[in-house]
Amino acid sequence: MMSAHSLIVEPFETLAFMRAALVACLALALCNGAVGTLLVLRRMSLDGDVLGHAVMPGAAIGFLYAGPSPAWLSLGGLASGLAVAALAGLIAGGQARRDAGLVAFYLVALSLGVVLVAWRGSNVDVMRVLFGTVLAIDQRALLQIAATSSVIVLAIAALYRPLAVGAFDPPFLRAVRARAPYGAVFQALVVLALVASFQAFGTLLAVGPLLLPAAAARCWGLGVLASMALATGFGFAASVAGLLASYHANLPSGPAIVLAAGLLFGISLGATSGVRRLAPMIGREG
Amino acid sequence: MEGNGRVLLREVTVRYGRRVALEAVSGEFASGSLTAVVGANGAGKTTLLAAIAGAVSLSGGAVNCAARERLAYLPQLATIDRDYPLTVSELITLGGWREFGAFRSPGAAMRARTTAVAEAVGLAGRLRQPICGISAGELQRALFARLILQDAAVILLDEPFAAVDAQTVEVLLDQMAQWRQEGRTVIAVLHDLDLVRARFPSTLVLARRCIAWGRTEVALSAVAA
Question: Does pTM top 0.90 for this prediction?
């Protein structure tokens, strides 16, 4: 029988890479909780998914140029993510067939990225770009993740009101002549958050830790700030659970974390709809 | 309220791709006028409001609205996300945005005004409710309260009475009459022609083009003929 200590604490105590992964996941949970909540409130989950893949071709070009260096992967990813966000904004100006256009971006970006990486790299490199390497985060990557996450959290704290109102009622923001293009600022923050997650979760999974904890938190019907805090907590809990599961059961760590977040979403969905159905029976007002 | 709420349309044309939504609409909403905009579905009513608000780019013509800095726009109720975690009080207080902006706190005076306008539209007891917990009529009242705080010279309303109970319609009509007395220009997209005849002095009939525009009885008789 394993003690709680050896089950939960020991993996992080003995292995430096587990500690680095844990700290990286905490930093990511902080920015993902805030960005993800706004993304879910804006009903832009699909956009988040697309932007996650938009990071791919740029990261691949960074890889071709400098090999698997976190800085070049991130810079390339940032550039192509922002470019696609701007392009999608231009196309969405026409409104029509918006989701089909987004999905086209998603597929083209993903395929282009894989082709570029496979051209010069190995299958291992392709897997790394697609699914990330949360257990191979060195100190430089860790600092980069922490710095990016801090910038995002500070930006959201400073621009909280216009970002929250823009998620609720964009015409109102336009009518009161809020001059800054807050929609574009928010898209840039989404791309930044995805770039921060890219090293740990890869282009396919980065959207998971961004959206799932936020979607789970949203089930509980809290205010915007409380939802952000809960999403951060969920994100961190999923990270700890996923890392431990990957350690003990020898599972791939990124997918294990995303699965744990998905489990939290399922539980939240089930629990809140259960409460909603039971509440009238107990005689409380629903 | 000084009389600068005039809105002048000159050959206003809006296209979405190849589809023409508005074609060469010209005319004037006088400062302090109360006008109903009527027409079939797809007649360009919402597009007209968006063009006045500067929310769509014109394919031709011009909108001259000196008070564009002091313009308020109420979208159709159905476009409001009622699941958004916001209380009635927070929603109404947003109307004071010009005073506290993106960064400052609304302050005690603004909170007192929120309470006052909530009372004016009959929402005094609802301030702490989340907007998902109130009826469609109450939400529309809250949005009107937000409009009152916005203190706009030009007020655009897109189907303000859709899905709203009769009692609320009366409250909202009274508010619109009061805005007119205060010298604000009110432009409302409406469907109920009997209501337009009874309460709106002027009417614009749209069918992509301007069919008739003027005193309500004259404009609507042009349609019937």
Answer: no
